Amino acid sequence: MTAPRIDTDTLRRLPKAVLHDHLDGGLRPATVVELADAVGHPLPTTDPDELAAWYVGAAGSGDLVRYIATFEHTLAVLQSREGLLRSAEEYVLDLAADGVVYGEVRYAPELMLRGGLALPEVVETVQEGLATGMAKAAAAGTPVRVGTLLCGMRMFDRTKETADLAVAFRDAGVVGFDIAGAEDGFPPADHLAAFAYLRRENVPFTIHAGEAHGLPSIHQALQVCGAQRIGHGVRITDDIVDGKLGRLAGWVRDRRVALEMCPTSNLQTGAATSIAEHPITALKDLGFRVTLNTDNRLVSGTTMTREMSLLVERAGWTVEDLRTVTVNALKTAFIPFDERSALIDDVVLPGYEAALRTSPLT
Fold first, then answer.
1. 146: enclosing H helix or E strand
2. I need a surface site. Which of 7, 61, 192, 358 has the fewest CB within 10 A?
3. What are the distances in angstroms from CA 179 to CA 51, 108, 183?
4. CA–CA gap between residue 191 and residue 157 (Å, rounded)
5. What 3-state DSSP class applies to 215?
6. Between helices 159-168 and 192-200, what is the axis angle to 10°?
7. pLDDT tens digits for 143-177?
8. pLDDT at 362
9. What pairs with residue 245 in β-bridges?
10. CA dist., res. 176 & res. 60, Å (int)
C-alpha cells in the first residue's frame, strides 16, 4: 500500500523543531552579499542566486574539510556588531517562516573576533539579534523559541573559554555547548577539562561525532566526555549488523541518546550516499531517538520543510514519522522539562492535527 502523499504547503505549516543548525551556515545569500560589500570582502559572485548555487556546489565535494572551508565568506561578514545583529535576527525570522516553533542555533564565538569584539560582546550581540527576531516573529503570529549553543572549535585550544561563556550566559539565552570543526584527527577527549567543568556547572552539551570519524568518536563523546546528544552520529550504523545492535549502538538506543541527523548535509560531506539510503530511516525504524535537522541552510541549500519533503518523497516517510522526529527533538532539547512538554502538548501535537485537518493527505 502506498503511503499518503503530503503536499509541500502542508509540510511548511507543520510545527517543526531543529536542534542542529549553525548560524554561520544559514545566512541569507543577499545578506552575505550586502555585508561583504560593506566590509570589502571579495565573494565568488555578488549575485545572490549565483552565490546560493555556489555554496551548494562547493560544499558538495564529499569531503568534510572542504565543506567547512566554504564558511570563509559567511564568517567574514560576522565580525562586526552590525553583521551579527542582522544575521541573528534574520535567522529567527527564517525559522519562523519555515514553520519552526523551537530551534537551537549554534556558533563559535572564537571565530568572530577579527573585528575587535571580545568574546562576551559576540554572545551579547547575537542574543540581542535573536531576541529582536523572536519579538518580530511573535508579533507576526509565528512565534518561535530559539536557544543558543556555544561551540568550541575542536582543533584549537579555546574550548574552556567557550565553556566559561556558556555558564556565564546560561540565564541569558544560552542553553548548551558543543564542539565543532574537523572531526577526524581531533578527538573529543582532547577537551575533557571543558566537559568536566560543564558537568560540574550542570550545563548540557552535545558533541559532533560519528560523521567523518566512526565508532571511536561516538564512544568518546558519550562514555569519556559525557555528551547528552550526538551531532550527526550516522556512523553508529557501523555497530549494527543485520539488525542486531552492538553494545555501543544498544547503549545509544536504550538510553534514548538523541542523534542530531542532517540528511542533505551528510550527502555533501560523504557521510551518506543518498536520501533513500540515509541511516536516519533505518535508525528510526529500529527505535533510535533520531531527530531531523538542517545543519547549514545556506551551505546545503535547504530548510526543514525541504528535509521533510525529501524524506517523504525518497524514503517513504509518513506524517507520523515526521511528528515522531519533531517530538523526539523537543524531548531532548536543552530547555527545562516543563517548557519542552508545553511545546509538545500545546503547539506541536495540535499543530499537526490542524495542518492535516485543513490539508488532508492525498
1. strand 145-153
2. 358
3. 28, 9, 9
4. 8
5. helix
6. 20
7. 999 999 999 999 999 999 999 999 999 999 999 99
8. 45
9. 240
10. 29
Which residue out of 104, 110, 183, 211 is catalytically annotated? Answer: 211
Q: Output the pLDDT for position 361.
A: 54
Distance CA 340, CA 189 (A): 30
Q: How far apart are CA 16 and CA 257, in angstroms?
A: 20
In the three-class reduction of DSSP (H, G, I as helix; E, B as strand; rest coil), residue 105 is classed as strand
Question: SS3 of 291, please?
Answer: strand
Closest CA to 236 of 195, 266, 203: 266
| Cross-strand pairs, 106 | 22, 149
Mean pLDDT of 15-32: 97
The yes-or-no answer on residue 211 being catalytic is yes
Selection from 344, 302, 339, 345 nearest residue 325 by Cα: 344
pLDDT band, residue 181 (cuts 50/70/90): confident
Set of cell numbers at residue 48: 545572490
Residue 85 backbone dihedrals phi, psi, to 5 degrees: -60, -50
pLDDT at 179: 96
Asked if pLDDT for residue 90 goes beyond 70, the answer is yes
Residue 174 has φ and ψ, to the nearest 5°, of: -80, 125
Closest CA to 187 of 165, 229, 159: 159
Q: Which residues have CB under 8 Å from 50's CB, separation 6+?
A: 44
What is the dihedral sign for C-alpha 320, 322, 328, 333? negative
Min mean pLDDT across 39-48, 126-135, 137-146, 206-215 is at: 206-215
